[in-house]
């Protein structure tokens, strides 16, 4: 029964594209939901991108900083998403192996989950270097996949 939840083929890499997009929404939903609770619904719906700046100094500093980092994690996910989607599509068009495509997709989703967790929770500059390392790992995955697709097409 559980196997019916998986795609019919052994290549589920294209399915990872909407999964990656959805994963990038998690810190946004956290930020907006937590901000809504903290402001008792007084945040602006008409100008949502200004809410964090509007509430700076009115919320506890630690909370505001964490919400700011969550917003940063979301924006970073939007910036990295096109690279990942292009790599998965290029890999599929080049007929890279399902194993390589699936491994890249799973590695990317795992790396991005770790990255967003670190981004949202680390507030110390020295520890933030761990986040930077995970970021480099996460963007390296689609870059390698694009390289492999290019080599296969060459």
From TrEMBL:
It is found in: Membrane. The keyword Transmembrane applies. It holds the Pfam family MAPEG. InterPro entries: MAPEG-like_dom_sf, Membr-assoc_MAPEG. The keyword Transcription regulation does not apply. One of its GO terms (cellular component) is membrane. Keywords: Membrane, Transmembrane, Transmembrane helix. Gene3D superfamilies: Membrane associated eicosanoid/glutathione metabolism-like domain (1.20.120.550). It comes from the Eukaryota. This is MAPEG family protein. It comes from Hortaea werneckii EXF-2000.
């Amino acid at each position: 029964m559980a196997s019916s939840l998986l795609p019919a083929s052994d290549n589920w890499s294209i399915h990872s594209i909407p999964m990656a997009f959805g994963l990038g929404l998690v810190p946004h939903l956290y930020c907006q939901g937590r901000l809504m609770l903290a402001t008792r619904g007084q945040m602006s719906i008409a100008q949502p991108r200004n809410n964090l700046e509007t509430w700076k100094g009115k919320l506890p500093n630690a909370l505001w900083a964490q919400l700011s980092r969550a917003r940063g994690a979301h924006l970073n996910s939007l910036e990295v998403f096109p690279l990942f989607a292009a790599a998965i599509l290029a890999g599929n068009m080049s007929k890279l192996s399902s194993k390589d495509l699936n491994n890249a997709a799973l590695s990317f989703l795992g790396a991005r989950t770790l990255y967003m967790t670190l981004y949202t929770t680390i507030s110390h500059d020295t520890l933030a270097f761990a986040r930077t390392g995970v970021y480099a790992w996460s963007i390296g995955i689609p870059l390698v996949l694009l390289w492999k697709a290019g080599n296969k097409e060459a």
